[in-house]
Design brief:
The protein is mainly beta. It is built from 3 helices and 38 strands. The strands form 10 sheets. Strands 20-21-22-24-26-35 form a 6-stranded mixed sheet, with no helix packed on it. Strands 1-2-3-5-7 form a 5-stranded mixed sheet, with no helix packed on it. The protein has a 5-stranded mixed sheet with strand order 29-33-34-36-37, covered by helices on one side. Strand 16 (207-210) and strand 17 form a beta hairpin.
Length: 496
């Protein structure tokens, strides 16, 4: 594995020289370039790089003048306008770095510059950047989306390898070469490669690092989109991946967007609308989905979607009696869910997601027929973070969710036991579709269970103008999740 600290190959900057400095002014500031300085605010955890020109390149994160703050203290990196390069290993090992600001003046990002910055979820690479070095963002395990600017011509070896939740990458048509392992061990299910690319290195896409055997293995159902006769097509063919010709709706394999998901239940995905529909009668199968992975135990729609954004809504039709365990795991962009009056159970982890789940539905209506809701079926997400020693840990927490259901139902019990907002529906309510902006037109009662067991109840006025028992309306309750209150878990086969 090229990403281990024992096997790193160092590439130095423009002038092929490496300069190391030590702090001379104080413990919290000093020089990091001929005309560049650094300062650290311990109160906010912010490291600021100021001045003009290039930062120095460093052989290791232990050589940076601010390395005493790398583990557990540097949370924000602000690189001010005027700085033109980010040195090799400049932020390597900043295992608590959550946010970085890169100005338009930067044209060069050195090797291993942000290596192993685990909490970093997003980064904006300015259009003026022409060089992104080897392993520059490798092992950024929470980085989920990357856009390569149109000023970059080469993506070097292992640049984004080990970014295990990286699901979306945009490669501009200025890129001509992609190095080996460039996107190895990522969660990409597909990639579009422009015609400008003439060279793609070994295992650049579609391979996962198997830590048990210590080598890369081919991923399943990976799709490459590109042009006929291109390097993309050659790479897909040589590695046995599905190749989709851009501008052509026909693929080289017979992947179907429908099939069985129960003894008498079927599924279908409308790729135009992003609607996943479960039809038929009886129970859905239980699944053993794992975050960012597909295998023979995964639900069938996870095996064929190109990206989680392909599924925007879920419709479970009348006749279905159960939703299987982990059935809709990781579908973080589902905006609405419709459940039938025949539904009796929702399996554990059925709608569990990864990250903050900012775009997932925040309201769901549970039919009165449901008598069982499994652990963490609704309102839970998993995440990773670095502890004070810089070791990767995993946790689980809750996001803001309003559950609508009937008094005395399994829905009310689940909401109460888990601390979610609960809206009591009138027996005349028949709507079971849910979304982030759903409103009810009958007399509803909102019950919020607090951490100390107290409840607040608010009744709204009916839409027909008849009097309700209060005039406050439904007050949205925000459940604020904190890492300090999160439950630390260990992920083996399946998160729970």
């Amino acid at each position: 594995n090229l990403n281990t600290s024992e096997n790193r190959e160092r590439i130095i900057g423009y002038d092929d020289t490496t300069t190391t400095t030590t702090t001379t002014n104080s413990e919290y500031s000093g020089s990091c370039g001929e005309n560049a300085t650094w300062s650290f605010d311990e109160t906010t955890g912010t490291l600021t790089i100021s001045g003009t020109g290039d930062m120095y390149n460093y052989d290791s994160f232990t050589d940076t003048p601010y390395n005493q703050f790398s583990f557990g203290k540097i949370k924000i990196a602000v690189i001010e306008d005027g700085i033109t390069s980010i040195g090799s290993n400049a932020f390597d090992g900043c295992t608590c770095l959550e946010k970085v600001t890169i100005p338009d003046s930067v044209t060069y990002i050195g090797e291993y510059a942000f290596y192993d910055c685990v909490p970093l979820t997003e980064v904006t690479i300015p259009n003026g950047v022409t060089y992104i070095g080897k392993s520059a963002f490798a092992e950024c395990k929470n980085l989920s989306k990357v856009t390569i600017p149109n000023s970059v011509t080469t993506i070097y070896d292992s640049t984004f390898s080990g970014c295990i939740v990286l699901r979306e990458v945009t490669i501009s048509d200025s890129v001509t070469s992609i190095g080996k392992y460039a996107f190895g061990d990522c969660s990409l299910s597909e990639v579009t490669i422009p015609d400008s690319v003439t060279s793609i290195g070994d295992m650049a896409f579609g391979y996962i690092y198997d830590r048990e055997i210590g080598s890369y293995v081919k991923g399943e159902n990976f799709i490459i989109r590109g042009y006929t006769g291109s390097a993309a097509e050659t790479y897909a063919t040589e590695n046995g991946f599905t190749f989709v010709i851009l501008g052509d709706t026909t693929t080289t394999t017979n992947s179907e967007y429908s099939g069985s998901c129960g003894d008498n239940a079927t599924w279908s995905l409308d790729t135009t609308t992003g609607t996943l529909t479960i039809s038929g009668t009886g129970d859905m199968y239980d699944y053993d989905n794992i975050h960012f992975s597909t295998d023979e135990l995964s639900s069938p729609w996870h095996k064929v979607i190109h990206d989680i954004s392909d599924i925007k809504s879920i419709v479970v039709e009348e006749g279905i009696t159960s939703i299987g365990k982990t059935a809709f795991l990781d579908l973080d962009l589902v905006e609405s869910v419709q459940l039938p009056s025949t539904l009796k159970s929702i399996g554990e982890d059925a709608f569990r997601c990864w990250g903050s789940c900012e775009n997932i539905f925040k309201t769901i209506t549970i039919p009165e027929s449901v008598t069982y809701i499994g652990d963490c079926a609704l309102g839970y997400y998993d995440f990773s973070y670095s502890d004070e020693n810089g070791d990767l840990q995993y946790g689980t927490d809750m996001y803001e969710l309003t559950i609508k259901g009937y008094a005395g139902s399994a829905a009310e019990t689940y909401a109460t036991e888990n601390g979610f907002t609960f809206v009591t529906l009138d027996n005349t309510d028949t709507t079971t579709s849910t979304s982030a902006d759903t409103t009810t037109t009958n007399d509803d009662t909102t019950t919020t269970t607090t951490s100390n067991g107290d409840t607040d109840t608010t009744t709204t006025t009916a839409s027909d103008g008849s009097a309700g028992t209060g005039d406050k309306g439904i007050i949205p309750i925000l459940l604020i999740a904190s890492l300090t209150g999160a439950v630390v878990i260990t992920i083996n086969k399946k998160n729970k």
